[in-house]
Amino acid sequence: MTAKAFLLKDKKALIAGENKFWTKPVAEALAAAGADVALAAKNNSRLEEAASAVGKTGRKALPLSVDVTSSTQVKKAVQQVLKEFGRIDILVNTGDIPFFQPFLKIKGGDWNKVFNYNFLSTLNFCRAVGRPMLKQKKGRIINIVSGLGERGMANGSAYCVATGAVQQLTRALALEWATKGITVNAIGTGWFAEPGQTVDSSLTRYIPGKRYGRPEEIGSLAVYLASDVTEFTTGQIMYVDGGLMAHA
Amino acid sequence: MDEIKRTLEGKVIVITGGGTGLGRSMAFRLAEEGANIVVAARRLAPLEETVDGVRQRGSQALAVPTDVTDPTQVKALIEKTLAEMGRIDILINNAGIVRGERPKALWDISDEEWHTGIEVNLCSAFYCSRAVSKYFAERQEGKIILVASGEGFRGQRNSFMYNTAKAGVVNLTRVLALTLAEFNVRVNCIVPGFVDTYENQPEDYQKIMAERRKTRKLFVPVGHSGKPDDIGFVALYLCSDASEYVTGGCFISDGGGLAGGFATTGYAPEVSLKEGLA
Q1: Annotated catalytic residue: which of B135, B162, B198, B205?
Q2: What DSSP assignment string belongs to B219-251?
């Protein structure tokens, strides 16, 4: 049950981007808190699952098949959401495609793809949603990032750089729109796995909480950051990571 | 080569905790570059060994037995240095309790242990910096160097006093730098990672460190602990004119430790874009 202060009653949310974990649990959490949820991603089974999870809460779901790396398609999708919902109160950017290769083996095209999925998609949606949010003098932008935006890891060059770019976009946009009623924050993630997914036992031992996170564990933070009580909270990266970033 | 003036020729550098460990190795490195060294710590015997080493390198040296957690003794240290050496150019706040002791359960840490840990690792740097600050400010010149630790940027189980105090040292550096900037005083912080300094430490400590050395290297991306001069050369840079415009900074030499911290050292997954997009 969502605490009353955090309820998102009748708010309109847009969850955008390609990722393995985040769309469904975030959509479910926002809908359970009272929001109607539009979903923009490649048309695949994950998008459908998320839409049906929203439907089960009794809120409206609006799944849109979008190439999130195309600014033209993103603009069109945002127009469509505005047409159907009338406004967008909450934008959650979820772009997060895992990609780990030795630096010299990464092809130029792969760098572009990782950047397009993990950074450019967020940029596209911030640009498209920024204007209507500025007009309504209110908005919540929540970017899902990884702690690898602050920490290095071997074979992680492309991924680290892209998620680090989103972290800095979060801080810079937060300041630019600090007096415009729009907050921009990020949910920082550590190691996550879905139930049944193979995990690395050395990492399980490494995480202070001694387990991987479950994707649904970021839902409540998304609701909190989307709610009205956080209007003074902006430019922050808040971690859901079992203590990973606190230790060496 | 002999014709070239050594870069710190004639400078007077006060190093707290200069009898052992990093303090001693910094003293030797800086003495080799011509600096005259004043070392201050509680025990006289190790200080005298450092003094001998400094003199062997052709520099002047002075040992001033000092409890740096006692502001009165700290004041006396500065006064004695000025009386005997005529000047102070640089203060290096290096004193600290290296974590030789076995960790205790949180509920077993006494008030006294907490206070001592904070006093030695954090307050001492404040007392020494305060004691020299007016002299530096009036002279419109001076450098203060603090020594923190990678632990000051991260948490660690059971390491209450050390990690808390070292985090304090990092921010003390910034506050001192901003406060003293207008007086042309530069304040910076050296951040060592794991450095093997146990050769000149007490025997029981050596034993613990030798044990730890084996496991520690597992946590250092470059695969081995640092050597004392890895820090000595950072000190040299910060003591020299090369760092004239540098203040409020943290200079980390830790074999890459702080660059990581998301996965076990050496962890290098391989996931293709095809798998990632699946």
Answers
A1: B162
A2: G-TTSS-B-HHHHHHHHHHHHSGGGTT--S-EE
